[in-house]
Structures are given as structure tokens and as C-alpha cells.
Prior knowledge:
By secondary structure, the chain is α/β, with parallel strands linked by helices. It has one domain: Alpha-Beta Barrel (TIM Barrel). The strands form 3 sheets. A 9-stranded mixed sheet has the order 12-11-10-7-6-5-1-13-14, with helices on both faces. Strand 6, helix 4 and strand 7 form a beta-alpha-beta unit. Helix 2 crosses helix 3, helix 4 packs parallel to helix 6 and helix 7 packs parallel to helix 8. The longest helix has 21 residues.
Amino acid sequence: MNTGNNMGKQMERHPCFSEKAHKKFSRLHLPVAPRCNIGCNYCVRKYDCVNESRPGVTSRVFTAAEAVERAKLATERTGSLSVVGIAGPGDPLANEATFETLRLLKKELPDLATCVSTNGLLLPGRLKDLIHFGLKSLTITINALTIQTAEKIYAHVFDGKKILTGQEAAERLLTAQWNGLREAVDAGLAVKVNTICIPGVNEDEIRHIAFQAATIGAAIMNIMPLIPQGAFSAIKRPDCRMMDRVRGACRLHIQVMTHCRQCRADAFGLLGEDKDVELEVLNANIGEDYCDMVF
């Protein structure tokens, strides 16, 4: 019972789980995870891109030790920091630096809540490690319920041995995502499901994702409009009417987040009011171009 109460209090301070919290509490994203194991047709990851604010973008990639120093500086700069997250610029679970960072954070900044955002491919096999390092909240990006829709969204999946495409890739990813969600909920984690609304591809399936996620026990769902780029650069960004319609249908099943700002992988500060912490971290050249690290 106390565990549930503590979880509830923690989520009240998490700006991505609570609409009220995002106006009071800051978050810090640590860009320690450059490698990714799937190819999303809507994703373009850029290195050292300071003028764009969207997922997959960071100015630098940090080692675990450098990331923890960054977290320490961030706590000194603001008393409102409540959560440190790892959201890329690739998939956190495909990078061992993620787990080393979580280990160091648990050791050196134990009062800070930690969060990880993942595509879910490796979640069933790495969930115990996340829990071991004190993770209490998790975000899984799930963009499809059916194999047919997933085939349109994902160009490939790397299963650790070979690159899968088509139906095989879609089935492998969806199985891992839904099994991982179920196992995370059963383990007591607060789970948010992220879904990209892609006109003409998955907008009619999102309400079914919401129903399935709610049935399993996800706490909240975040439905974000497509940012046209990559293979989906010709698809028009969904307008407010479409987003309202899709979110309204999902709200019948699950709590829906509407204050997301589709943050960078190195975001810091309140949602929508990012601050620059880079100059206070290290003057030396940190990190490496992750464009060469994609499977």
C-alpha cells in the first residue's frame, strides 16, 4: 500500500505524467544512448543540431560519468528538477551506457527520480536491470496494434543478430512492445505509452492502442502529431481537428497527456522553456557523432 502511495506522489512530480507538474517541476534528459535498433520512417536523428527541438536531436552525446556530472550541475541550477530521463538520441535499452548512467545516478543522486523512454524491442529482456537500478517510471512508444500498420511505420528491426524487415520485423517489435508493457505494469512501474499520429497510416488504429494499453494497465497515453521528415516527409502534419478527434476517442479508455512538447534528447528545464546547461558541463569536446553508430 505504501508503495502505491509513494508511486502516486512521484508521478505528481513528473512533468510528463502530470499536467500540473509540468508547470512546477523541471526534467533533464541525458543523451547517453546513440545507438538504435529499429528504423522508424518518421525519425531523423541529427548530431550537434542546436536549432531544432524534437526527439532524436542532441548537441552532444555524453558518457555515463559526464551525464551524471551534468545532472549534478542541473540540480545546482534549479531547485525544481524532479526527474532525470534517458530518451535517446537512439534507444536507451540498446546502449549499455544507459544502465551505467542509471547505476551512477542511483549511487550519487539517489533522491532524483529516473525515467527511460524506449521503443520496447529489448524491454522484456532488460526490465529487471531497469528495476534493479531504481527505475519507477517508463515510457514505451507504440505506434501500431496490427502487423499491417507496423509494416508501414518501421523500415527494419535489428534483433541482435540480423536485420528484419516487413512482416517479420513488425511481428517481432509488436510482440516485444506489448509483452514489455505487460511485464512493466506487473512489476509496479508507472508506464506511459507514446504514440505518433501519422495521417493515412495509423490514426484510425490509435484508439485501439489506447484500449489495449489501458486494459493492460498503462497509466497515461501521449498522442503526438507527426513531424514530417524522413520517409514520411511528404505526409502532412495532422491538424488540431484530427488530434482532438484522436485524443477524444482515446480518452474514453485512458488518461491522455496533452502538454507534450516533443522534447530533444538533451532537454533541460520546464516543458517548453528549455535552458542551456551545456556551457556549464565541460569545455572540452564531449561525445561522438552517433550517425555512424546505427545498426
